Amino acid sequence: MSVVYDRVALIGLGLIASSMFWAIRKAGLAGEVTGYARSEQTRETARRIGLCDRVCDSAAEAVDGADLVVLCVPVGAMDSVAREIAPVLKPGSTVSDVGSVKRAVIEAVGPHIPEGVHFIPAHPLAGTEHSGPESGFAELFRNRWLLIVPEGGADEAALARLRALWEGMGSHVDVMEPDHHDLVLAVTSHTPHLIAYTMVGVADDLRRVTDSEVIKYSAAGFRDFTRIAASDPTMWRDVFLTNKDATLEILGRFTEELFALQRAIRTGDGDLLHDYFTRTRGIRRGIIEAGQDTDAPDFGRAKVGE
Ligand SMILES: NC(=O)c1ccc[n+]([C@@H]2O[C@H](COP(=O)([O-])OP(=O)(O)OC[C@H]3O[C@@H](n4cnc5c(N)ncnc54)[C@H](O)[C@@H]3O)[C@@H](O)[C@H]2O)c1
Ligand SMILES: O=C(O)C(=O)C[C@]1(C(=O)O)C=C[C@@H](O)C=C1
C-alpha cells in the first residue's frame, strides 16, 4: 500500500489512536506518525511499546508540520485540544477526529480551525470495552464502517485522501450528515450502552444475588451487557452529555415499548410478546440478508442462519 500522508499526528493515545497507529504502520500509509497524550504516564507507556514514530511532550509539537491531525480524545476534551493546536496547523493540512458524537465536535472544534485548513470530522464504528495506549490493535477497523461527517461541502480532494487512509486501514467508508449521524448512533450505540450500564447496575443492586452468583451463573446475554458496561466512563459520560437530545428521544421511545411489554407480561398477553419477538427476529435476519452485519466473517455476503 502507498503512503497517503507524509506526516500524521494523533492526539490522545488511547484505544482508537493506538489502533490507528498499528494499522497505518502495518499498511505503510504514512511516512511518519507523531503522537501526544496529556498524561506523562501515557506518553511513557507509548514510548515503551513503540507506539508512534515520535511521542511528543506537547500537542503543538506533535502537530507541527503534520499533513493530517486526528483528534482521538474524549468528546468533552475536543474543544481545548483544538484551541491548543490551532496556531501551529499547517496551511492545506486536514484536521479530523474520531469522536462518537458529531454535532458537538463540529461546534467545539470548527471555530478554532484557521482559514486554509480542512476540517473533516469522522467516526469509526469500531471499538472494544478496553481503553488506553496498550489496548489498540491493527485489525480493529477491518470490515467496519467509517463515517465521514462533514458540515456542508468538504473539500473533495481532502475528503478523498482521508477516505483512502481509512480504506487502507480496512474500513468501509460512507458519508453522513451530522444530525442524522447523532440520531442513528443514539439508536445503534448510545442508548444500548446506557441500557447495558443500567442492567449491570440493577444486578449489582440485587443484594439477594451474591457477587459470586452473578459471575458464576452469568448467561451469555448478561455477560454481553457486562462487557459493554465495562467501557470507559469518561468517554461515555461525554457521549451522553453531548448527544443529549437524540439519546433522550430514543430513550423515550424505548421506555414506551418497555411499558407495553411489561403490561403484556402482567396481563399474560402471549400473542403480543410472540408477535413482538417475531418482528425483532425478522429485523436481525434482514440485516444479515442485506449483508450489513459487519461482524460477519464475509462482509457483504453472509447468509441467514450462519
Ligand atoms: N472506545 C470505543 O469503542 C470508541 C469507538 C469509536 C470512537 N470512539 C471515540 O474515540 C475517542 C477516543 O476514545 P478511546 O476509546 O480511544 O479512548 P481512550 O480512553 O482509550 O483514550 C483517550 C486518550 O485521550 C487522552 N486525553 C484525554 N483528555 C485529553 C486531553 N485534554 N488532551 C490530550 N489527551 C487527552 C487520554 O489520556 C487517553 O490517552 C473518543 O472521542 C470516543 O468517543 C471510541
Ligand atoms: O464494541 C464495542 O465495545 C463498542 O461499544 C464499539 C462502539 C459501538 O457502540 O459499537 C462504541 C462506540 C463507538 O463510538 C463506536 C463503536
Automatic annotation (TrEMBL):
Gene3D superfamilies: 6-phosphogluconate dehydrogenase C-terminal like domain, NAD(P)-binding Rossmann-like Domain. GO terms for molecular function: NAD+ binding; prephenate dehydrogenase (NAD+) activity; prephenate dehydrogenase (NADP+) activity. It comes from the Bacteria. This is prephenate dehydrogenase. One of its GO terms (biological process) is tyrosine biosynthetic process. It comes from Pseudooceanicola batsensis (strain ATCC BAA-863 / DSM 15984 / KCTC 12145 / HTCC2597). NCBIfam families: PRK07502.1. The keyword Protein biosynthesis does not apply. Keywords: Amino-acid biosynthesis, Aromatic amino acid biosynthesis, NAD, Oxidoreductase, Tyrosine biosynthesis.
